[in-house]
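Case study 2.
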Amino acid sequence: MRLAILGGGGFRVPLVHGALLAGGGVTELVLHDVDAGRLAAIETVLAEQAAGAPGAPRVRTTTDLATALSDVDFVFSAIRVGGLRGRRLDEQVAHAEGVLGQETVGAGGIAYGLRTVPVAVDLARTIRDLAPRAWVINFTNPAGMVTEAMAAHLGGRVLGICDSPVGLCRRVARALGVDPATAWFDYAGLNHLGWLRAVRVGGADVLPRLLADADALESFEEGKLFGASWLRALGAVPNEYLHYYYFAREAAAASASRGAQLLEQQRGFYAEPSLASWEKTRLEREATYMAETREGERDDLEGGGYEKVALALMRALAGVERTTLILNVRNGSALPGVPADAVVELPCAVDANGARPLAASPLPDHALGLVTAVKAVERATIEAATTRSREAALRAFALHPLVDSVSVARRLLDGYVAAHPELAYLA
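Prediction:
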């Protein structure tokens, strides 16, 4: 199989390559990026990773998109429009207005989407024309929004992935003392806006047992983050990104510039790339992930779950083995109360025919209300990016639950247009 990674100079590419070395059936890996220097740095790391590894895929790099897409079976889209500098600017504009600047949630997520969706749509059209039989696995954030925009041109051949749900399920299973392979995880929502509502083992829901045990509940990341009493009140364990909604004032007050932090962390690596410096930088990145929402360093540094999801997804789509994965896909009729063509995050049955979301029970009113509001924002952002509508962009900012004023929304939009050349279309 041939795999192309768009955004192949990105820092996380060695995680994917490492997973492929463990056995992914990929014979050739093509890395595409608009930055030749970043490509060269990552190529150096991959060469060190592959040294002595039997059956390592051949690695090629290119800055030409048509070359990258030639005769590929799979495309991983992992682009970052504007780079980490763009992320830093997203955060700075939001912080100046006293609102959250996180890259997938709130004002920062909207700004990132407005920059990214036009490029992602162009990529989707190009893939449709040059590699129509390829499966596209989207890593690019905001993952749900970008997957939905690409699906307008690729249909069910584009699937979005995220490591947050699988990490949550893994940690909950560990706290319960159950084998994740034997459990069914009832998870539903949108990307970075989902809830684990039940954990079924042998047909019985064992999540209430965890919710009743404060020590076990607060033994893992989400339990510490939300607190046992709030999780009991919800009757579910939310995705960690819901901290930005449930503790909005505290999160906005504590938010730091993650973009600036990552830019500084990665500067040294790209200046003198090596496998050792990449691994050191990766561990620093994982240790400080969402640091503004917790005290001290993160105690779950395994990280890297998303490349395992991608590999399992790729094997299933290639017909090697069927599986069930939590993915970002078009809803159909799976999640009641959400439009059929909206991209949601649900468990899916995956085989060579694609991914089919499994029927889910309705979300409780509070969760459905939040999902509906955020989905409306995502769709307004896509509309703004695809029709060049300033009104739609303003609507996206003003209607987001974490932006509490139309006046603030107007200033945010003006600030982002001034900060990003990519947003000149909204001037």
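Residues 60 and 246 are 45 Å apart (CA to CA).
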